Amino acid sequence: MSWNLKKFDELTNTELYNLLKERTFVFVVEQNCPYLEVDGKDPFSYHLFKEDNGEIIAYLRILPAGVSYQEVSIGRVFVKKEYRGQGHAEELLSKGLEFIQKELNETAVKIQAQDYLRKFYGAFGFKPISETYLEDDIPHVDMLLQK
């Protein structure tokens, strides 16, 4: 298994295809949530993913400040269903936050988290900054990490 962190234009066609396929499966099919998953922000983002024999098993994208929010943001976080509960999510988020702090020199990270993941993100220091609200019929909460 290997980790990769790439800008959009560094992704191979196969990597991009696999990322979009897995994201669509998790966020549209698995969550039964029809929405435009390809939102135009990928070309401005960093893509962090873990592969196992060419299969993407964990992923998140890092959106620089000004793309979604005034702060840097993390989004589209997933671990493929059959790999969940094995520590990949914690490792994924740790690597993403390390890159943001050490390489981008950013101290604030804003996310739009599904409400049931409030405790998970809280363990990394994220604090809720909004009430729970519905986004595509799924309860969400805005959270902020400040170092």
From TrEMBL:
InterPro entries according to UniProt: Acyl_CoA_acyltransferase, GNAT_dom
Keyword Transferase: yes
SUPFAM superfamilies according to UniProt: Acyl-CoA N-acyltransferases (Nat)
Single Gene Ontology MF annotation: acyltransferase activity, transferring groups other than amino-acyl groups
Keyword line: Transferase
Boundaries of every N-acetyltransferase domain copy: 6-147
CDD domains reported in the protein's UniProt record: NAT_SF (cd04301)
Annotated signal peptide: none
Gene3D superfamilies: 3.40.630.30
Domain of life the protein comes from: Bacteria
Keyword check for Transferase: yes
Pfam families: Acetyltransf_10
Entry protein name: GNAT family N-acetyltransferase
Source species of the chain: Bacillus salacetis
